[in-house]
Amino acid sequence: MTLWLIILLTSLASFGISALSGKWLVPFLHKLKFGQPIKVKDGPEWHAKKQGTPTMGGFMFILSTVLASMGGYMAYRIWAGIDSLNIAATNRFYMLLSVLIFSLLFGFIGFIDDYTKVVRKNNDGLTAIQKIILQTIFSVGFLFALHVFGGGRTSINLGFWETPDLGIFYYILMFAVIIYLTNAVNLTDGVDGLCGSVTFTAMLIYTVCCSILIETELSCFTMALAGGCLGFLLWNLNPAKCFMGDTGSMFLGAAVTAVGLVLHNHLLMLLVSLVYIIEALSVMIQVTYFKITKKKYGEGRRIFKMTPIHHHFEMSKWSEYKIVISFSLTGAFFGILGIVLVLAF
User: Fold this and answer.
1) Are 242 and 26 in contact (CB under 8 A)?
2) Measured between alpha carbons, how far is 119 from 324 in angstroms, rounded to an integer?
3) What is the torsional sign of CA 85, 86, 89, 91?
4) What torsion, rounded to 10 degrees, do the Cα atoms 102, 107, 113, 115 define?
């Protein structure tokens, strides 16, 4: 059995678990009446017809990622004959475990948010302060694990140039990156199949880079998540039978960020995450411009028809399929550029 066969089987196992679990999970969520509350102000008015679609479907790829990545890692360890006394291999396993736990903890934040929404029957879950407090605690824990098991590197790697050692300021900056990027992924989940498709692409790109950088343990996670996302898309493509909810999008946000930080290639992480970054940036630009023009003219003005920017394209009469394909191809283009830069430098 070759290494790539192990990685491929890991992905296929995750795909199967994710896709098949939907046959049980979707009816179960219907039975519990865990439907997604929809506010028209949060999206185009025609999204109102999606009211009541089961949420928390992210459990499909969360379950599959945990089971498949751990199974794939054990298969790889047996195949490679890794000695339990091998300190470097042990640290890489602990780093893999840290990425998985960190993603699960952020998924837990999303679950609390989703559960609060469905119980209250409105779109108001955790407050912003509550989310930030939980995200801060879990982010600090992950950064500590990154320092202990990830080599303690505190420079920013842009491929063609690496900054001097930044010390504690590196972790402060990476904390801000975690908060921004995890919430950016969350914002991307606003069109059927969008977040799952973009993240599927991101994880494929990360897997190739894991191979180049010889981070085999981590590739078990990235391919398991890629397979899990693909299985989930069978239930989430338009018209969605189930939404991932914040449970899923927060898990994905943490996963995308954590893998990028472990690979310690910040330019790659920027390129792989560019679609998410633009989604969040569009909201920031819209809100800032609205406030400035309201203060100046007495009436707020907008640059985009609606944000995040995928809603702008919806309002411009793009179909949900066209948005998903376009955004995923954009992510793939910049991801491939990231691979080229990793190879070059």
Assistant:
1) yes
2) 30
3) positive
4) -140
* Model confidence pLDDT, tens digit, residues 131-164: 999 999 999 999 999 999 988 899 999 988 999 9
Tokens of 240: 């969605």
DSSP sequence for 116-149: HHHHHTSS--S-HHHHHHHHHHHHHHHHHHHHHH
pTM of the model: 0.95
In this model, does residue 49 exceed pLDDT 90? no
Structure tokens at 155: 């420079």
Bridge partner list, 35:
54
Residue 40 pLDDT > 80? no
The C-alpha atoms of residue 147 and residue 170 are separated, in whole angstroms, by 11
Per-position DSSP letters for 57-100, written without gaps between them: TTHHHHHHHHHHHHHHHHHHHHHHT--TT-HHHHHHHHHHHHHH
Sequence-ordered list of residues with C-beta below 8 angstroms from that of 301, at least 6 positions apart, any chain: 289, 290, 293, 294
What is the distance between the alpha carbons of residues 259 and 99, in angstroms, rounded to a whole number? 7
- For 256, which DSSP code? H
Structure tokens at 251: 């898990």
Residue from 40, 145, 164 nearest 99 by CA: 145
Tokens of 345: 């430098």
d(CA 209, CA 336): 10
- Of 98, 131, 129, which is closest to residue 112 (Cα–Cα)? 131
What is the Cα gyration radius of the chain? 20
46 or 26, higher pLDDT:
26
Which two structure tokens, joined as six digits, stand for 257?
């960020």
Give CA separation, 77 vs 239, 249, 270, in Å. 41, 30, 31
Tell me if residue 162 falls in helix, strand or coil: strand
What distance in Å separates the CA atoms of residue 247 and residue 82, rounded to the nearest whole number?
A: 35
pLDDT tens track for 179-205: 999 999 999 999 999 999 999 999 999
CB-CB contact of 157 with 220 (8 Å): no
